[in-house]
Design a protein that fits this description.
This protein has helices at about 15-25, 40-45, 50-70, 85-95, 105-120, 135-145, 155-170, 190-205, and strands at about 5-10, 30, 80, 125-130, 175-180. With about 200 residues, the chain is α/β, with parallel strands linked by helices.
Length: about 200
């Protein structure tokens, strides 16, 4: 198989990192993880979202574009556990809708996002993990990350609506939608193999 760029997308708790790791190992792909530990804006953002939303989103956009370009120009096929598209279509949109990103900053952000996207190689496949909100809440509670302790069902439902809207109109590459609640790829090798077969088929079409 020639060099491929595969993106994982999905709501918080949908299982992106798990599936990214398993598919990366299964196919021998280079893995790109989302990094938040080195983000200098997160503490300020959680203290005052309205003040720091624009700064946070600009940092994420630059960091993710740099990672994407580095992996896209490497010789090996790659899989990333969060797509750069989600920065604008899901999370910046959510911050704007909640009033934490004003109209002027949101318009400036989208203009920069569109410019950056036009300069990046297109992916070969987007894998979208779809999961119902109750399952997302259950998984978030089970992994017990302090940074996620304030995530509500209402917030996840808002993001879920954004995801369905975005995926329904996404045409930069083929999309493979996987119902996360129907697949236990971590504990069931048959489920992982089924997903791997679907991925291979999409990449060969």
């Amino acid at each position: 198989m020639n060099k491929k760029i595969i993106l994982l997308a999905g709501n918080i708790g949908s299982g992106k990192t798990t599936l990214t790791n398993l598919l990366g190992e299964r196919f021998g792909w280079q893995i790109g993880h989302e990094s938040v530990a080195d983000n200098p804006y997160l503490p300020d953002f959680y203290a005052d979202m309205a003040q720091w939303s624009f700064h946070l989103q600009i940092y994420f956009l630059g960091h993710r574009a740099e990672q994407y370009l580095a992996l896209a120009t490497s010789p090996n096929s790659v899989i990333l556990d969060r797509s750069i598209y989600e920065d604008a279509t899901i999370f910046a949109r959510g911050l704007h809708q909640m009033g934490n990103l004003n109209d002027r900053d949101y318009a400036a952000y989208k203009q920069l996002f569109d410019l950056i996207i036009r300069g990046l190689p297109r992916p070969d496949l987007l894998i979208y993990l779809d999961a119902p909100v109750p399952l997302l809440l259950k998984r978030i509670a089970e992994r017990g990350r302090e940074i996620e302790s304030g995530i509500s069902g209402e917030y996840l439902a808002m993001l879920d609506g954004f995801y369905h809207d975005w995926v329904g109109h996404f045409d930069d590459c083929p999309v493979l939608t996987i119902r996360s609640q129907d697949m236990d790829v971590l504990n069931n090798p048959q489920h992982l193999e089924l997903v791997a077969q679907q991925v291979e088929q999409k990449l060969r079409n």
